[in-house]
Task: inverse folding
C-alpha cells in the first residue's frame, strides 16, 4: 500500500491503520472502495457494500471473499467517524494492474463529492490524468 500526502510525501506506516468506522482500527487499503455481493447460498447478488463495514477482521474477510470489485471509477463517499470524508474507487491506471488496487482521497471535515474531486484534481492531478487517458470517468454510487 502506498499512502501519499500532498506534495508527494509518503505517509508513514502508522497512519495506514485508521480508526474510522465505529471506533475500530481498520487498514485503509481497499476497505472503502465499493464492492458488489456475489449470489451465494440462494441469496441474490448485487448488494452494494464496502469491506470496512465488517465489524470484525473475520467479517471484513467474509465481505471481501463474498463480493467483487465494482468497475473502475465507480466510487463511494464516506463521512468517517474520525471526522474525515473519503472517496474511494478501484483504479488500475496508476501503474499497477493487479486486482485490489484503489485510489482514495481523504479530507478532514465533511465534504461533498464535488469538493472531494476538486481537492483531488488540485493535489493529485496525475491520478485524474491517468483516469482520463484510460477513458474512465468517476461515477458516484450510493449505499441503500
Result:
Amino acid at each position: 500500500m502506498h499512502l501519499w500526502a500532498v506534495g508527494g510525501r509518503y505517509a508513514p506506516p502508522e497512519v495506514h491503520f485508521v480508526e474510522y468506522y465505529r471506533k475500530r482500527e481498520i487498514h485503509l487499503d481497499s476497505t472503502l472502495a465499493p464492492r458488489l455481493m456475489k449470489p451465494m447460498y440462494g441469496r441474490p447478488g448485487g448488494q452494494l457494500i464496502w469491506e470496512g463495514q465488517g465489524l470484525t477482521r473475520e467479517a471484513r474477510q467474509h465481505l471481501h471473499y463474498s463480493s467483487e470489485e465494482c468497475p473502475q471509477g465507480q466510487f463511494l463517499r464516506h463521512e468517517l467517524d474520525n471526522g474525515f470524508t473519503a472517496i474511494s474507487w478501484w483504479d488500475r491506471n496508476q501503474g499497477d494492474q493487479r486486482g485490489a488496487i484503489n485510489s482514495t482521497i481523504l479530507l478532514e471535515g465533511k465534504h461533498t463529492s464535488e469538493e472531494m474531486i476538486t481537492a483531488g484534481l488540485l493535489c493529485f492531478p496525475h491520478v485524474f490524468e491517468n483516469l482520463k487517458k484510460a477513458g474512465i470517468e468517476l461515477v458516484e454510487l450510493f449505499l441503500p
The first helix runs from residue 57 to 65. The chain has a mean pLDDT of 85. The longest strand covers residues 84-90.
